[in-house]
Amino acid sequence: MAGVKRVHAVVLGAAVVGGIAVFYVTSGGAAIVPTGPIPQAEVDAAASFPGYVEGADAAPVEVIEFADFQCPACKQAWVLTVQDVKQRLVPTGQVKYTFRDFPLSGHPFARQAHHAAACAAEQDLFWQMHDQLFLNQEEWSFFRGAPENKFLEYATAVGANVPAYETCMAEGRYRARIQASVELGVTNGVTGTPSFVIGGRLYQSMAYDQLKAIVDSIAASQAGE
């Protein structure tokens, strides 16, 4: 878990300093997302992105998850909580589920992993890449080579057009959007992952039954209004 001050320092650094992105390629050939400051104007322009959504806008309750692909607790939540939400509450119209990027500064490969998912999303493959990143988390988190090569493997495995994916990664096309999601999380009080915003309230990682009880309570309250 990362404290607000640590995360917020990343946000301020991106906001204050401008810079020119430099593109790199690994010795293995997979594109690396550019690093360095992100102009705040670009972050602000990307803030309208609604996140990755499953479910109908008309659902009575929205469950927003702020997660980090390199976070072990997020993988556990994916296994024990989120899959049940998506399989049991979304199809029945009880919940609209939204995934939000919140890569922690203490996880060195997290931002690149989130960018890999965003590039897969260009090809309507976000959820497939999302699952690959969590399923193989231990593999790429501790990979002694270049993790971007693993991300390319996963993108290939889910059927992505490789040249298009690689161009997206090399351009760092979604760096500002990911940063905007981090800033949104900080605004909502997120200090670590996974965090859930349900009915305007912030919750830490929880079991499915706990989340379902919160959803039922909010839905019942709305029905009684």
Q: What is the element layout, followed by pairings?
A:
Blueprint lengths: L3 H13 L7 E2 L5 E2 L7 H7 L5 E3 L6 E7 L4 H18 L5 E7 L8 H12 L4 H10 L1 H5 L5 H11 L4 H10 L3 H13 L7 E4 L2 E4 L3 H16 L2
Parallel strand pairs: 4-5
Antiparallel strand pairs: 1-2, 3-5, 4-6, 6-7
Fold and architecture overview:
The chain has 225 residues and is α+β, with helices and mostly antiparallel strands. The chain has one domain: 3-Layer(aba) Sandwich (Glutaredoxin). It is 51% helix and 13% strand. The protein contains ten helices and seven strands. The strands form two sheets. Strands 3-5-4-6-7 form a five-stranded mixed β-sheet. A hairpin with a 5-residue loop joins strand 1 and strand 2. Helix 1 crosses helix 9. The longest helix is centred in the middle third of the chain and has 18 residues. The N terminus is likely disordered.
Keywords:
disordered N terminus; two-stranded antiparallel ribbon; 7 strands; single chain; alpha+beta; globular; 225 residues; Glutaredoxin
Give a quick rundown of the structure.
It is built from 10 helices and 7 strands. By secondary structure, the protein is α+β, with helices and mostly antiparallel strands.
Report strand %: 5-15%
Overall mean pLDDT: 87
Which CATH class? Answer: Alpha Beta
Would you identify the regions where 5 or more consecutive residues have pLDDT less than 50? 1-27
Radius of gyration: 17 Å
The ordered string of helix (H) and strand (E) elements is: HEEHEEHEHHHHHHEEH
Overall shape: globular
Give the strand line-up of the largest sheet: 3-5-4-6-7
The helix content is 40-55%
CATH topology: Glutaredoxin
Instruction: Tell me which CATH architecture applies here.
Output: 3-Layer(aba) Sandwich
CATH-wise, what's the superfamily? Glutaredoxin
Number of domains: 1
Number of helices, counting only DSSP H or I runs of 4 residues or more: 10
The profile of the biggest β sheet is: 5 strands, mixed
Pairing-aware structural class of the strands and helices? alpha+beta
Distance between the termini: 37 Å
Number of extended strands? 7
